[in-house]
């Protein structure tokens, strides 16, 4: 069951309210949420990072220890690798992408969130997508892929492919989670890091095409 955010006053904001203003309201709700047991172990909720005006969104799994302590997604070792991966195709994580997770509170021992936790938190993610209105969504890892697209097959079989989403014209691509890539040192052909490089080149291409179309 997906539970809608409580006391949602976003629609009562003035029409001139920015995306960030609207997201701040949802972030405050997430910070006060107690709809699942994850809230009992959090230092703070972890809502987002980056630019809500960007055409690209990345959705991960959930906060880890460093994220729980800082309140910012993807700041640990996996996050540092993500920043490098984005930079390799000239995507700045502060200006060119909006980053968030399926769940906003840290699961114990950094385990994957269970379906009930994902369902209880999913309305916050849907509000983020509705407000940001990304053109392209990267789904980092199997949990994000299952949560957004409902795909239960192995991510290795579908990574790098664009899928339609229920969110307007947004397209979503499953990619390997950076934490998975940390297990592999090699960048040789057909290794996980090599596949990620192919996927990111595809992302760069569609962003360049989008920019060209908007400037035409």
Radius of gyration: 17 Å
Query: How many beta-strand segments?
Result: 6
Indicate the proportion of strand residues.
Answer: 5-15%
What is the ordering of alpha helices and beta strands?
HEEHHEHEHHEEHH
Give a nutshell description of this structure.
With 216 residues, the chain is of the alpha/beta class.
Compile the SSE list and pairings:
Layout lengths: L18 H14 L16 E2 L5 E5 L4 H6 L6 H11 L10 E4 L13 H18 L3 E5 L1 H8 L5 H4 L4 E2 L6 E5 L2 H4 L10 H24 L1
Parallel strand pairs: 2-3, 2-4, 4-6
Antiparallel strand pairs: 1-3, 5-6
Helix pairs in contact: 1-4
Task: List the defining traits of the structure above.
six-stranded mixed β-sheet, Uracil-DNA Glycosylase, subunit E, 8 helices, alpha/beta
Characterise the protein shown here:
Mean pLDDT is 94; it is low at 1-7. This protein starts with 18 loop residues before the first helix and ends with a helix. It is 41% helix and 11% strand. The chain is built from eight helices and six strands, in the order αββααβαβααββαα. It is α/β, with parallel strands linked by helices. The protein has one domain (18-206): Uracil-DNA glycosylase-like domain (Uracil-DNA Glycosylase, subunit E, 3-Layer(aba) Sandwich), CATH 3.40.470.
